[in-house]
Design a protein that fits this description.
The complex is a heterodimer of chains A (636) and B (346). Chain A is 64% helix and 5% strand. By secondary structure, chain A is mainly α. In chain A, a hairpin with a 4-residue loop joins strand 6 and strand 7. In chain B, 51% of the residues lie in helices and 15% in strands. The longest helix of chain B is centred in the C-terminal third of the chain and has 27 residues. Classes of the chains: A mainly alpha (636), B alpha/beta (346).
Chain lengths: 636, 346
């Protein structure tokens, strides 16, 4: 059922989006308008449900009303139906395959790849980030029919449009519908690379670009999951492509639409802000150096549009925390939820996860991104590095590709300075893939052997990505196809060991699953649980009761520093109506070590409070569940 | 008639007003005629030339359509009756003994002679041009064929006829003189530098025009020359560089658009720069022309030399990275290698 609903919503997004955009952009047959229509309506849906959340109306009635609205908008634009159907017929029937065997083989592998991801997307959400953050907050919102803000949650006030889209789908179907719509965004991203590429640069380069893009080795891990990266990448790619077109032909309508989609990208994730900033900066430079004839008025309007589409989440964050980009750049803004604890967490994250940002590392970063999954938490695979020199020795003259190239370069520098997580490169990779397809196409056309080598290289890369995709997805197949239930699925789920990414070894993803099931059998939904643990992800999503984080050095809603006696602990737990406490006290990141205390003396008070807290659990609570690592205490 | 002075001109009426008196003022003991070929000028060149007093030793030819420099010179040579043909462009002014200098040379030598040309105006690029070509050889001596330029040269008419004059296939700027110089060289005839045949170049072209002409040379003239004389193509330094592996590295390091723009701005804004800056801009313009010419060729006739090299670099790198990846360079082995690299950097 959720597949049908997702399909219906997808069609309605396209039809209603095209109906709206046809009022603004005349050429409604352009592929970018079709993809832009879906993205625009998905983004608007995110904001509709944000407003619904603020009005405490995040419920099925709102979802159904919005669905009816989409149907009405689509119906008013029914004159565009023929154009859309013609577009679909033209792009998805006869013309995918060409007369070249090599290209046809690649197209077949891409099809299998996408099919595997599609089946994987039908399984229950399995990604740790999704369960820890994206759907954990979503679940809280849906439980309370409102947009919750949990100050103890690290990403409690960040942009959330993509998740609100999932909320809409979850309300119409179930959580898997919320996941599947994100897969649709990823699928449209792949299609947009192919179809926009074909429209602008020919079928051969389009297939090469699509191959380069989906050969990105971390992409399979994102495509079928309900992270917001697909939505962000889709809106970023379309935004930059529209701005590139606007820069090339000084089309102010393209610029406005590009700015709107850029604004939507910023509404998906904080780092999405970079997309409209880079795109509009390049447009401005073009204006200054007379490379385009866009008027100052159009440019100012596009800034306004981008700000309009981006600002709601940042405004909310500013109202809630005093910092529009909470929990980032806290030194610039007076963030009322920022304290030494969170600051320390950031510091720890940096030390633990990220390599230094210096020139040497910058120069080495293409190699690290290719070979080493540990440095940037994922790897691109060899395809990008292997083609990189070709874009220099074969001059790329197409101004649209140059725009993508320059935007990607600026983004890459920003990424290296600020983010340094390979996954966050996804927004620029579709444009980079189009750029890289140009010299590949030139080599391909130089004769028989170059053609064979290119086909061979990209087939190998594609097969590697296919194998990785299969390895990620195959364990989801039984649950996706209804052979096993959700409980069995989660109990046996495996994931790549995050501490040894380069090895690619698999470990049980949710070792605490049975423990959580036992907690669930005792704690009701109305109960509140205090979590004194580092392993927060699945507890957040899988435990039915409401969770409060009680982490002395991490996200925290408990004032450990002012706790002097066990009575203080009891009083504070009473004030928070906490019934159960889950701990995994064996982890030394929870209780400050002596070394840490020497470095950050302010944690001494937290340590005292934490020790009193542990004493309180021992004296005043009953251990009700214990699985060797995790303990669940019930307050007397 | 001992010599014929062949002047070709196109839209240079102002320059002709300066040139013609210097022709009339030639101190020559020998008899020579002047042939002016007006290559379909659209300014008042025709009016100016028609207003000149008719004389036996002055022949004026008006072309009905633009036939190009090579064909215009050939046309002038056809009408010439002198034993020696002296070719000049219409934007020169001649020293008093210019014609006599050329004639004297041919009395003792059977060779082609390239006269000395100065440039009016004290701009950096003029000083640069004055130091190029024959000036590098210094006092009268033999020049390599690549230094043969047609704005100021002389040649025995018999030799010119034997070589069938200029190749009119060179219809745009540049290349026709290089081709003729090459054929003179292949004929076993020397090309000499003749400082006594002194002329001054009047026209001050903008840098954009100068580089634009070099681009045209790279786009049309040089590829045609290479096609006609593949055996001597490597004797042209700019082409030798272009067709070497070094070029691809240069194009990444020095010939990329950003660096080129910096140099261009320097050249435009600073009057007197070392010659290397002008060399760079001229070579870059020729390379741009060659690249564009190659792109046009490639679409119909497969990869050209530089394209093939670019392709080989790209494919070698592509295979290297993929093989490294496939054969387990990733992971711990890579990290070890990276550590070594980091240590070297530090």
């Amino acid at each position: 059922m959720f597949i049908l609903i997702t399909f219906l919503v997808t069609v309605l997004f396209i039809f209603s989006g095209v109906a709206i955009l046809s009022l603004i952009i005349k050429k409604d047959h352009q592929s970018i308008v079709i993809f832009g229509a879906w993205t625009l309506m998905a983004g608007i849906t995110g904001y509709i449900f944000m407003i619904a959340g603020l009005l405490n109306c995040l419920n099925t009635t709102t979802a159904v009303l919005w669905l009816i609205t989409l149907i009405i908008i689509s119906f008013t634009g029914r004159k565009c139906f023929g154009t859309i159907l013609e577009f679909a017929k033209m792009n998805f029937s006869k013309s995918i395959f060409s007369s070249e065997t090599g290209i046809n083989i690649i197209a077949m592998i891409i099809f299998v790849y996408l099919l595997i991801s599609f089946i994987g997307a039908l399984a229950p959400p399995a990604n740790l980030d999704v369960m820890n953050y994206h759907f954990a907050i979503l679940k809280q919102c849906l439980d309370s029919n409102s947009l919750v803000f949990n100050p103890t949650f690290f990403y409690g006030a960040t942009p959330f449009s993509a998740e609100m889209l999932s909320a809409f789908m979850t309300l119409l179907s179930d959580i898997r519908g919320g996941q599947l719509i994100q897969f649709v965004a990823g699928l449209l991203l792949v299609f947009s690379v192919y179809i926009i590429g074909r429209e602008s640069f020919g079928a051969r380069r389009a297939v090469l670009a699509t191959t380069v893009f989906i050969s990105t080795l971390f992409f399979p891990a994102i495509l079928s999951e309900a992270k917001n990266d697909q939505m962000l990448a889709l809106s970023s790619f379309l935004s930059l492509h529209l701005m590139a077109n606007a820069s090339n032909n000084s089309n102010s309508r393209s610029l406005l639409m590009g700015a709107a989609l850029g604004g939507l990208a910023a509404g998906m994730k904080t780092y999405g802000l970079a997309i409209p900033m880079i795109g509009l900066s390049l447009i401005l430079l073009g204006m200054v150096f007379h490379r385009n004839t866009i008027s100052s008025r159009s440019f100012a309007l596009s800034i306004l549009v981008a700000a309009l589409f981006a600002s709601p989440w940042y405004l909310r964050s500013w109202l809630l925390t005093g910092n529009p980009v909470h929990p980032f750049f806290t030194q610039l803004f007076s963030d009322r939820y920022w304290d030494s604890t969170l600051s320390f967490k950031f510091e720890l994250l940096r030390e633990w996860r990220y390599i230094d940002a210096n020139l040497i590392q910058f120069l080495l970063s293409p190699f690290r991104l290719t070979f080493d999954a540990d440095s940037y938490l994922a790897r691109l695979g060899p395809i990008y590095l292997s083609i990189l020199p070709a874009i220099f020795v074969f001059r790329v003259r197409n101004p649209i590709l140059r725009f993508h190239g320059i935007a990607a370069l600026i983004y890459f520098v920003l990424w290296f300075v600020i983010l340094r997580d390979a996954r966050y490169l996804l927004p620029i990779l579709p444009g980079v893939a189009l750029l890289f397809a140009e010299p590949m196409g030139q080599i391909y056309e130089k004769g028989k052997w170059p053609k064979i080598i290119i086909i061979l290289a990209i087939t190998i890369n594609l097969l590697m990505a296919l194998v990785i995709n299969f390895r990620i997805q195959y364990q989801k197949f039984p649950a996706a196809l209804g052979i096993i239930g959700e409980e069995e699925f989660y109990r046996n789920l495996k994931e790549v060991d995050r501490r040894k990414l380069s090895d690619g070894s698999y470990v049980i993803a949710i070792p605490e699953f049975d423990f959580l099931q036992k907690v669930n059998s005792m704690a009701r939904e109305s109960n509140n649980i205090g979590l004194f643990s580092y392993d927060e992800p699945f507890i957040y999503y899988s435990v039915n009761a409401k969770i409060y984080l009680l982490l002395p050095l991490w996200q925290n809603s408990f004032d450990f520093q002012s706790m002097v006696t066990e009575a203080d602990i009891g009083n504070q737990l009473d004030s928070m109506s906490i019934d159960y406490v889950i701990t995994d006290t064996g982890d030394d990141t929870i209780v400050p070590s002596n070394e840490l205390l020497a470095q950050f003396p302010e944690f001494g008070l937290s340590l005292r409070g934490a020790n009193i807290f542990l004493g309180y659990l021992h004296d005043k609570c009953d251990l009700v569940v214990f699985d060797g690592k995790y303990r669940c205490f019930k307050r007397r | 008639m001992e010599a014929s002075l062949v002047v070709i001109t196109r839209n240079q009426a102002n320059h002709l007003r300066e040139l013609i008196p210097t022709i009339a003022a030639q101190q020559s003991s020998s008899k020579f005629e002047t042939i002016i070929v007006n290559d379909c000028s659209t300014d008042d060149t025709q009016v100016l030339l028609d207003s000149l007093p008719q004389k036996e030793d002055l022949v004026i030819i008006h072309c009905g359509q633009n036939i190009g420099r090579a064909a215009a010179r050939n046309l002038g040579a056809d009408k010439a009756s002198g034993k020696v043909l002296i070719f000049i462009d219409g934007d020169l002014i001649l020293s008093e003994r210019f014609v006599q200098g050329h004639i004297n040379f041919h009395r003792s030598e059977f060779a082609a002679a390239v006269g000395r040309t100065l440039y009016r105006g004290d701009s950096g690029v003029n000083r640069y041009f004055e130091s190029r070509g024959g000036a590098k050889v210094g006092e009268a001596g033999t020049l390599p064929f690549r230094y043969f330029i047609s704005m100021n040269f002389s040649i025995p008419q018999s030799l010119f006829d034997k070589l069938n004059g200029f190749d009119t296939e060179f219809s745009s700027y540049g290349g026709e003189d290089l081709d003729l110089g090459c054929r003179i060289h292949k004929n076993g005839t020397a090309i000499c530098y003749l400082p006594s045949a002194l002329a001054t170049h009047i026209e001050e072209s903008s840098l954009a025009e100068i580089f634009g002409k070099r681009y045209q040379f790279g786009l049309h003239g040089l590829p045609l020359f290479v096609k006609k004389h593949p055996d001597l193509a490597q004797d042209i330094p700019v082409y030798r560089l272009y067709s070497s592996n070094t070029y691809r590295y240069l194009s990444i390091c020095l010939l990329n658009p950003i660096f080129a723009r910096i140099i261009k701005n320097l050249v435009l804004k600073i009057n007197k720069l070392p010659a290397v800056f002008y060399d760079y801009m001229i070579v870059k313009a020729i390379f741009d022309g060659l690249n564009d010419a190659n792109e046009k060729n490639v679409s119909t006739s497969g990869a050209s030399g530089p394209e093939r090299r670019a392709m080989m670099i790209s494919l070698t790198w592509l295979l290297l990275i993929n093989i490294l990846y496939l054969f387990g360079f990733a992971g711990e082995r890579y990290k070890t290698a990276l550590k070594v690299l980091e240590d070297i950097f530090h």
